[in-house]
Amino acid sequence: xxxxxxxQHLTYTDWTVSETHLAPERxxxxxxxxxxxxxxxxxxxxxxxxxxxxxxxxxxxxxxDEVPIVYTELANCPDWLPLVVIVDGDRFRLERGEILSYERxxxxxxxxxxxxxxxxxxxxxxxxxxxxxxxxxxxxxVLGLRCQVTPVDSESAIEVxxxxxxxxxxQGFNHWELLDQGKTEHGVWLNLRTRSSRIQLGMATxxxxxxxxxxxxxxxxxxxxxxxASFLASPGQTVTVExxxxxxxxxxxxxxxxxxxxxxxxxxxxxSLLDAHVQAWDEVWQKSDIVIEGDVTAQLAVxxxxxxxxxxxxxxxxxxxxxxxxxxxFGYRGHIFWDTExxxxxxxxxxxxELARNMLTYRYHTLPGARRKAVHYGYKGAMYAWESAxxxxxxxxxxxxxxxxxxxxxxIWCRDREIHISADVAYATWFYWQATGDDEWMRDxxxxxILDTAIFWSSRVEYNTKYERYEIREVIGADEYHEFVHxxxxxxxxxxxxxxxxxxxxxxxxxxxxxxxxxxxQKLNLSSGRRSRWNDIIANIWIPYDESTGLIEQFEGFxxxxxINLEEYEPRTKSMxxxxxxxxxxxxxVLKQPxxxxxxxxxxxxxxxxxxxxxxxxxxxxYAPRTDISYGSSLGPxxxxxLASDLGKTAEAYERFMQAALVDxxxxxxxxxxxxxxxxxxxxxxxxxxxxxxxxxxxxxPVAHPHLPHGWRRLKFNFLWRGKWHAFDxxxxxxxxxxRHADMEISLPAxxxxxxxxxxxxxxxxxxxxxxxxxxxxxxxxxADEEGxxxxxxxxxxxxxxxxxxxxxxxxxxxxxPEEKLQEMMDRKNQYYVDSIQNISPKDLLPGVLTLLDxxxxxxxxxxxxxxxxxARPVVEKLGIANRIDAIADGYSVQRPKPAPDxxxxxxxxxxxxxxxxxxxxxxxxxxxxxxxxxxxxxxxxPASRVGEAHVILPNLADTDWTKLRAKLNxxxxxxxxxxx
Length: 981
Ligand code: BGC
Ligand code: BGC
Hints:
- The active site is at residues 764, 766.
- Residues 303-686 form the Glycoside hydrolase family 65 central catalytic domain.
- With 981 residues, this protein is an alpha+beta fold.
- The chain is 38% helix and 20% strand.
């Protein structure tokens, strides 16, 4: 703790941030910086004794009340801080007298804010005053504040007044009506109610004094119950006043003021409450801490951002979620945006998933509001609010007043057009499920979220008959500088992705929880017509992507807009929108925040289209220089940090990372006074763990691909995946190399320390070398139509990698047929298929296949086919690759179908190789399972949800080659070694 970094009068150690100089012009932003909280409430860092320009606030999750223009806001709750010290008649305030020394410190490890002041009163008396406060996370309804006073040079008559201020304001607006107040033998209490939402709040407080004989007095001016202690203290004599506060609202109990008074009566000492609180923090940090060595500013800044997220994450409440400015300021009025799902949730999903679950359940509870919004706009299903509060109804202001007296009101279009929020919620729902395997929650809440928002999408997209494609018109994408665009690539692809997942969830429910599916079907109407429309949209929605260049057009016509060189505007301290105006900004190729790059970032997680290193490079080069990364949106820098780091632009990555990490500590954007930038804080975690740590899920467990910023000697964190903790302790690359070497020499048997000795490749046919799925589908469809059986494209999806017989059995479902009839139907389907594959030719080979086959052969690697199809041979011939294949295992080779290992063992045997010398390339879950059971290496093609068990996962074979594959297999092998050691 002896290393320190200084900046703007702040001093950082690895767990603390201190201010040693009071800068009045920074007063409000520092109130934000020094916010504390406990997941139930947040309290800004205002002073106990008051200050002329103070904006004190205590915000409690869920305590919303109506206001004009922005509909509803978190009501500033009664202030529990007031503690006035009067020294020989002079009231202690930092604007008066003289500050001889000053230090305010936030210790994020213990969750304690303290302040030490040596003050000379206007009448010349010097006194030391030390404050300390915490909001207990061990018991969320308890707040503790302690004040210690020590006269320095003369005996003083001191009075301490501890109060509750029942007149809190939201920037001039008071939400409360006072119901009642009073005293008990333990202290005083206040009972209030919000004006329109009629939420009742009870707060009680008591004080305890030690170190002097004091007289205690209770006064009860309206709305300001106060306890006063008066005493005499001589120089060096420290007198301690401990103020404990309890708070409840009618959201958690029926009679909050009674409960608050009872609780106060039962409270133990301040010190035991503090101990329990510190202990609870210790447990939180064990899970969530990140250790960085070699960069104290980064170390503290990362912990600080995590602290700010941890204190606003609802712990015992699943009807609330984290607002954009957390519980630390009035900005965005406590409204909840995509900031939570996309930026903040990953931190919780991978370190404290029960908290992520609370916040996602909030989205489940607000589905009724989302449905009302859909109805209002003339759509179906659930359309989430761009800005959401207690009910899920849309609360984005329709108009905002202009910045100057003579300007026009500004129409805010986000409520109508920034619709990607519904896919964002589905995205977080999906990844929460992937990371936790929480099937129960998916069944009870997640599925309904994903399916009902999918229904919204199918009513929102439009079919363009001219181009024969689906489109989404009149939207705002992630980049809010363009307010009326068609076919935003980010939105369109997220919708496509969302519908893919909706179909998956439909099948998953059907297979695992048919009753639940039935219930949802009744409630939402998930008819096959509706689902085939989803399929159709998936297949035909337009994504403005140019395959030849890899460039994605942000929306239709973006490239035609006037270009801009942002460097010409430097240096600046304002956003490009403030400089150009809304209209002019709309006309230019300038972005408020990543949009195409945001899409690539979100698809990077599962390596899905359009993500690839090449598309990333291409689009980075185009969009990064056109993005207002300094003053656009605070959501941008962390994402740029990650992508820059992927691209090996380490210096830029670090600069962006720091921009995000210091946004509130150093008020980088000049608006920290409005509250903590929650999304940026969440982005900081992602930048460190997913970016610099390079965590990816390979072979169903997290694997690090670190690229540490210059100077970082160590990066250490925990990552929870499917209920299992993975501890990562990363060092700079050179160190890693040497360590890995040393590890192996010491602990690995010589034979297993080498990379796998790959001698053969076994390829599945369908979906790997070629795609005859369409031919199979058409054949099945024809048969089903002839037999009057219900069948369609989605049902066909479930047949991937499934044998002919099993496929037929699934299609006939409950209907019973004699064996001969089944046989006849299989033959008939096969005949249709065989007829149709007559047209297969080399052009049906999937991209990348031919090159890979040739490379493998050149490297002396043998090649086999391992396909369940009885037509594999003719297909291989028609594809023109028969001469490149050394052995064929097909539908005639073995009895037991995949996932039994038989087929692949047969193929290896034909090649004369050991299983461990073979790599199987498969696109079906059952195929991967079979190959693993055979003891072979596996390359899975497709989403992790399907082939996640494979050693290496790729979207397809298009962008790979033998060298890359070998490197990935080596990594997988090393990972496996590590896990074994
Ligand atoms: C934000 C929007 C928000 C609007 C109204 C704008 O500054 O960019 O996302 O909806 O304010 O709160
Ligand atoms: C950003 C949005 C964000 C909102 C709330 C806006 O300025 O453009 O992406 O959701 O702020 O943080």
